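Example record for the data management plan.
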Amino acid sequence: MLLLLWSTWLAGDAARPASAQSEPAPQTILPPGLYLFQTRTRDGTCGDAPATGYVTSAVATLDGVPGSRAMTMQLLNSKYWPTWQLTVQADDSIVGTANMGGAKDDTGGTSRFELRGKKDRYQGTGARKYPGSRDGKAALCTLNYDALLKPIE
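Corresponding structural encoding:
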């Protein structure tokens, strides 16, 4: 028995299950806290979106454990996209996903962005997809946007 314990200790990572070995290292780029989240309309497919260049701003709280690659972002002044799931990828890009109105599923619409660090902020692009109409017929509409996430200090 002692020999088995000793050999397991010497083996280190090799003796751990594969799932424990493949866990990514803690991220260091995105701490929980207060942020400014902005989007700027680029284009839309159904003609019902605000004009190109329209900017929306929201105060955001990022909630989670420091170092975790998964966090929740709450937009304090947004009824359409109040709750986001954020993931910091292995390449340090940040992916955010949300359901329209905070719904539990994607039937009302979804939004997804991908950001990368740039100096004191994170910038990137995203798209919203939602049921709408085009030329009087039901359609899946898309709104493309630029996105910005910046810590509030």
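Summary line stored alongside the record: The first helix runs from residue 2 to 11.
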